[in-house]
User: Fold this.
Amino acid sequence: MEIRLAERITSLPPYLFAEIDRLKAEARKKGADLISFGIGDPDLPTPEHIVQAGQAAMADPRNHKYPDYEGMPEYRAAVCRWYERRFGVKGLDPDKECVSLIGSKEGIAHIALALLEPGDVALCPDPGYPVYSIGTRFADGIPYYLPLRAENGFLPDLESIPADVLKKAKVLWLNYPNNPTGAVADLDFWKRAIEFAKKNGIVILSDNAYSEVAFDGYRPVSFLEAPGAMEVGAEFHSLSKTYNMTGWRAGSLVGNRTLVQALGKVKTNVDSGIFQAVQVASIAALDGDQACVDRNNEIYTRRRDVLVEGLRSMGWDVEPMKATFYLWVKTPNGMKSMDVVKRLIDEAGVVATPGVGFGLGGHGEGYVRFAITTSEERTREAVERMKKIGW
Ligand code: PLP
Assistant:
């Protein structure tokens, strides 16, 4: 029997990273010792006090059952307390304005099912985290790619969106601090975005996964700090990057209650919530000492500086990022990003991600992304190896 898959699967773009995996496998076969800046997954362990809270909760049989769909009330309360402590966002109702997520990725993918009718447009940043547009397509919506350009500080030019697109647009995805560009947005930007959303009847979905990965004293803001945010949108957050907890799968959506409850409704029908032991560990993370976050950022700062200095000494055009663990680097001599990545693997045993992989709009071309999730020592070694290549 021939199994015929749905078009939403067969029409997915070819997986660029399969080609990179092939190049890596080939290099390893030749004996290369690869140093990877490819994956946005912290190499540092989850802090001990969080692991201990999770271990104790795991041993408690009360946590072995199905969790509450929307998340334990204690977890949602801890998320809202954290929003107040960290961003000064007061008065969030944990019952109606916060839902737990099994990592923010699933919520980002699922919310399209709650918002989009077939043919509705979602405005997606390009380059950008691919799940905004893939979730849109899975819900039979249409992604419209908003270019993020260096000359605009990698912020979208909302005024340049054509009127016919605006008419069909229902959702605006924004992600600051930004993956992959490392760009940040201030409250002024959020105020303008909210004005734009109100004028055009468009929902803002903010993805703030990297708000705690920041350097040189810079403190990222939350969309929810801007006046009127709760009327027009909501914000995804995650414990993944803040506390080195990518494998635990814990996140949240906080904001406008209609949006939060609609996503909750989707989720009651497709999953059964976060393992309670993980929620208990997450409460320990959110309510506990935040010194672990500073320690992470000190380590990332040193790695960033080694890499920036090294690439600059090679004549590359690099601006150190203020936040996220992504260094977004212009390719030398206007080279295609995939060609740079191939040479890095072949000639230096260094893995980076080609900008062209971050969205179908193609606006990531001409850049390469380095994730500083490799030790300072290995970063130094990578720099020495890259310097030996003539560009
Ligand atoms: N948003 C952005 C911009 C990301 O880069 C990622 C992960 O890499 C996520 C969301 C999802 O993170 P998680 O599902 O672990 O919360």
